[in-house]
Every structure is written in C-alpha cells, then in structure tokens.
Amino acid sequence: MLGSVASLPTALAQESVSPTTQYLALRRASPIVWGLTLEKIRETPSTFKGKAFELEGTIAGLSPSNDGSGLMIFKTLASGTLTLRMSQLPAWLQPGAIVRVLCIVTEGGDDSGLIIGLPELEVIAVASALDINSLEARWKAEQEYKTALRKQQEQERLKDQERLRVTAATAPRGNLSSRALPIKSLAGKKQIVLGPPRFEDLSASARAVFPAYRGYIKNHNKRLSDTQADKITYAILRYSEEMDMDPRLIVATVIAESDFKIQDRSHAGAMGLIQLMPDEVERLKLTNPFDEIQNLAGGIFLLKERLNKYSKSSTYTDATLEQLILTLASYNAGEGAVKKYGGVPPYRETQGYVKKIMRIYKELIGQ
User: What are phi and psi of 84, to 5 degrees?
Assistant: First the structure.
C-alpha cells in the first residue's frame, strides 16, 4: 500500500516542502487511474485495489486522533459526502477548505462477494484545489503554446519544401557549368552558424541555382528522399558560399567520398556524406556526424581550412590548381602525409581520389 508523505524521498518529506509539491510528487509516483469515479469503483472494486485516483471537494469536518491520523468528512462535487481516512492529517487542513485529495483503494474484496457502498479508501495526499487548478491551467496553456509553435514551424517547413519542389520541377538537369555562385571574400569570418534548412536563408544567387544542384544530386542518388535532397543541396550551397568555396567542387568531393549516401561509413571510421573522421567531429563539436547539415558544413570548413593553408589566402580564386590538389590530397591522406612527400602522397587510393574529384569537377565547370 502506498503510504503517507513519509514514503517520499527525504527532501520532499521536509516541512519546507509545500503541500502542493508533496501532492504532485505523490501523484507522479502513484499508479493513478485518470478519470476514475466512485461509481466505477463500486461496480468492480477488486479491479481498482491499490490504484490511486483524485477527487475534488470541500472539507466538511475533521476528526483527528492522538497519533496524528484521523478522518475527514469530505463533500465531493458530484458524488455526495464521504468519510475518508488519512494516516497523517496535515496541520494546515481546516473545515471549509476546497481541496484535491489523492485517494487509494485499500480494500477491494473480490468480485464473488457482495459489497454494499464503497470499499475502504485512504487519502495519501491533500492540497489546495486552487493551487493545483492554477498549475494545471498554466501547464495546459504552455502545452497549447508549444503545440501551436510546433504546428507553425511544421507549416513553415512544408511551405519551404513545396517552394523548393515547385522550383526544382521546372529546373534544367545536367551539368552545372553555368551554376557557380558569385565568389566573395570571407577573410576574418570566425564562426559558421549551423541551423535548420530554410529557403529564405539562402542568398538570391543560391536560390536561383538551387533547382539545378538539387536535380543533379537527386539524379546521382535516386534513393534520396525529397527532404534529404533538399537538405543536402541547401547545405552545399549555403556553406560553400559562406566559406568561399565552389559548390561544384563540394559536389565532386561528396561523390568521391560517399556517392551521396548519408549513412556511409568507411573501414577507417569516417562518417557521412563527406566522410568526417571521429577526431574531426570532436574538434568541430558536431553532435550528429550523419546529419546532412552538420556533416557537409563540417567537411566544407575542413576543406576551406586546408585550402587557405596551402594558398596562403582566404579567397578561393587566389588558389592555384596545384594548391587545390594538395587540399584534396590532405583531406584524404592527412596533412602530415602531404608534408612528408612534398605533394600528393604515392598512395594508390589518394592519387585515384584526387584524379576522380578533379575529373568530376572539370565536367561540372564545363571543361
């Protein structure tokens, strides 16, 4: 049987804890049956033995005992007056108080016997009905606000997706030779902010080329859902532009790394679309390396970081072909290997990797 307040954790049993806090703690901990009525208990009392339920009403009278327990005459809102037992009557409880009581069915008998009236009930917690009702009204309002906010956000997301689909439906397919974004210097930019894919966050130039990139990506991996293709395209265009990289180079790199397979994982442990290693994920403080946005933004950042190092410039157009090749080689084999060999390491995998990306990149830029 559930006991009195003494069965709560020590912190809750202290006198400093309000009756409302104690009541709510016990309500959370009890096997409560919401909506249970006295009429239902009368019908099948054994079904509800050991179960808790709530009543609201007015204290019509109190009969305390020397040991602190006692009886309360409780006038309910809908079921008349009851006599309820409580193992420890609170000192604050007075006749006339409007309260909520948390009761437990202590004796249910069995369904083969005849029970007249109600089975035995015990009050395990009591609190001001005004306080409980006020809290529940606030919680309900907060929940309604959160629900409305989620609904609004979902509607905005669906609108974005629809705009992208409508635009993509009329977009040309094929190579991206005329789809480069304008280059801008981002020297001094210290932080790249990740966020949900929102069409309005893209620049006008990025929005204009979005359909062609999306069509190319979706055509390359037909298993991508519309939502996945949208997120990948968004990430490539937005973060390539923010970090001053050619998005066509990023497309070529992703093809070489994963063929646009979102959950791809290499034998060495590299993860996702652009194959981030665990130490890179940790350094970039990414929470989900397989998330399209995080993965691509992280990979573009690493490529830009290496390109800046080899070109000694923060502007993409300042980089030579050789510096671009060193960037790709270091992304595959590591900066240490590039330094050791003074160029592309003599590894078959790395040399094939660089050649593949440069071949695709040249096709995409129309060379």
Answer: -120, 145
**What's the rounded Cα separation, in Å, for the pair 164 and 179?**
17
300-344 residue pLDDT tens: 999 999 999 999 998 999 999 999 999 999 999 999 999 999 999
Check: CB of residue 215 under 8 Å from CB of residue 173.
yes
Q: Which two tokens stand for residue 197?
A: 């894919």
Catalytic site positions: 257
Is-contact 132 23, C-beta < 8 A? yes
5-137 CATH: 2.40.50.140
Q: Which of 352, 330, 353 minimizes the C-alpha distance to 341? A: 330
Report pTM.
Answer: 0.54
Smallest CA-to-CA distance from 64 within 97, 87, 81 is with 87
3-state secondary structure of 131: helix
**Alpha-carbon span 211 to 127, nearest angstrom:** 61
Query: Considering the domain 171-364 in this protein, what is its CATH number?
Result: 1.10.530.10
Nearest Cα to 125, choosing from 258, 255, 253, 13? 13
SS3 letters across 309-328: HHHCCCCHHHCCHHHHHHHH
Structure tokens at 297: 């933004």
Residues 29-50 have pLDDT tens digits of 888 888 888 888 877 777 888 8
Residue of 173, 234, 161, 177 whose CA lies nearest to 202: 234
Domain coordinates in residue numbering, the chain: 5-137, 171-364
Mean pLDDT value of segment 165-178? 47
